[in-house]
Predict the 3D structure of the following.
Amino acid sequence: MSPPRAPEAEIVQDMTSPRDGGFAVGPDDDSPNVINVIEVRGLTKRYGTITAVDGIDFTVRRGETAALLGANGAGKTTTIAMVLGLLLPDAGIIKVLGCDMLANRYQALARMNFSSPYVDLPRRLTVRQNLEVFARLYGVAGVAARVREVAAELDMTALLARPSGELSAGQRSRVTLAKALINRPDVLLLDEPTASLDPDTADRIRGYLAAYQARHGTTILLASHNMAEVERMCSTVFIMRDGRIHDRGAPRDLVARYGRANLEEVFLHIVREKAAQ
Ligand code: ATP
């Protein structure tokens, strides 16, 4: 994984920018008719001679969970960073909740959030302090109560008083997820949401995310290398290869179409087919 820059630092900077005049701003086109909550057309990102993302198109519908899959370096993180508005594309269009993220991202950002294991929270602040800072940045009402609530929901109340720098990798993942949910986002971007979590905690987190989504109608786009997780959570997958979307569909349709036993076998087939070329 090669994150373009520290996204958390940028989003904090973005969201405190005087240009948007605050957080509680709704997007221009926030009608229930916005069915395609995430809409990407011709999205391209180059790093020097490397084309990390090569003219991709996809949509994620309201209330859907979709996954970006692909081998290391396929372009998943770069895509997520561009959808968040953290990284400028070289070409293409990104709309979230009807907002053009290139022209007007501050409005949509207030209703989005993300988690990534590659984002470090300030280490000397306790978990509670970190979550309170983010709650304030997102303009959450009743900060202390919301922090207590999200910590209880994610079964991490015992972590609140701990300095963030002293947490294990799995504990940090849970805190990052709590951060991602602090503003009850309508759109959630999750980069490897269960990385480092033990199987029990990962299973609980998946269950929690599904329940949260059912309750709030959240639209989720995630990147994951865990195919069982994707089969369980996602109604659509986009399989990336060399910056392009090589195939897409519902996990069970892809499994049937490739004549495989599960999504992991489909993934291995696609990746190894490329390696054999
Ligand atoms: P992984 O599964 O390893 O996390 P990924 O699918 O998320 O991979 P990206 O991190 O999006 O892949 O990287 C896509 C391509 O872009 C890779 O070839 C990577 O080396 C390159 N890349 C990513 N960030 C940068 C950067 N800041 N500078 C130069 N090249 C980069």
